[in-house]
Amino acid sequence: MPSDPASAGSIRSRVGLTGRGWWFLGTGLALAAIGWVQGWTPAVQFGALVALLPLAAALLTRSPGSSLTLERELSSRELATGDQLKVTVSVRGRFPRGRSLLLEDAAPPELGGAHRFALNGIAGQGVSRSHYRLRVGARGIHHLGPMRIHVIDRYGMVHRVITAGSRDEIIVHPPVVELDPLILGGASVGTGSGHLGARGAATDDVIPRDYHPGDEVRRIDWKASARTGNLMVRSEENPWRSAITLVIDLRESDHRGREPESSVDAALSMAASIG
Known about the structure:
Largest sheet: 5 strands, antiparallel
Mean pLDDT: 77
Order of helices and strands: EHHEEEEEEEEEEEHEH
Strand content: 25-35%
CATH superfamily of the domain at 63-173: Particulate methane monooxygenase, b subunit. Chain: A, domain 1
CATH topology of the domain at 63-173: Jelly Rolls
Helix content: 10-25%
Number of strands: 13
Number of helices: 4
Structural class: alpha+beta
Shape: rod-shaped
């Protein structure tokens, strides 16, 4: 189930200096200042050159944001707590070969936090893909993304972060356990057994039948029983389906443990399995 590709308009680029870049900038400015105070022109010139190196690297490092298309494909958008989700990230566009891209897919703590992985450099209209898995740890609606691409220049002085605005919604529900078919009390073989008739039903719709152990006493047809000499109960041709109502106490003070192994998660899982 692929997500919408991140278009060029949804990609933002931010440039910053690495530790090495700040060191070159600070050292160059300090050297230029000392040379200016001492009146030593070569020191001022050399300091200015050193300080301008990270700035020049930032200007010369071309942002690949406008030529990249990012796609995220999920194995499923609806999972139960404890399940594994497979994520495939594809990057298409132009980027120098031989260089790697560090991708970071943002995720909340319920999905294991941000996931980082590397992609090899691509050129032309090539496509580079990477896969990773995450384990779902909490109920609710969670969002995966946006994706960030970290690019560092060849000299390690400029750190460029490209953010793609694509996000995917993941719905996490309590685990459902397959149970044997549930037979409600009072049910027995026969049409309409264990059910109540619809309101306003005509008397022609009521068909008496023999009484079976477990039938409700209030459904005994005394007139038909007196007429036939056997105990008879009312049975409708168009009965309602049997149903049950599950009530769960979600007050935090009445539960123990932490999600996803808390008592409220166990109660929700049991209710979902029965329902």
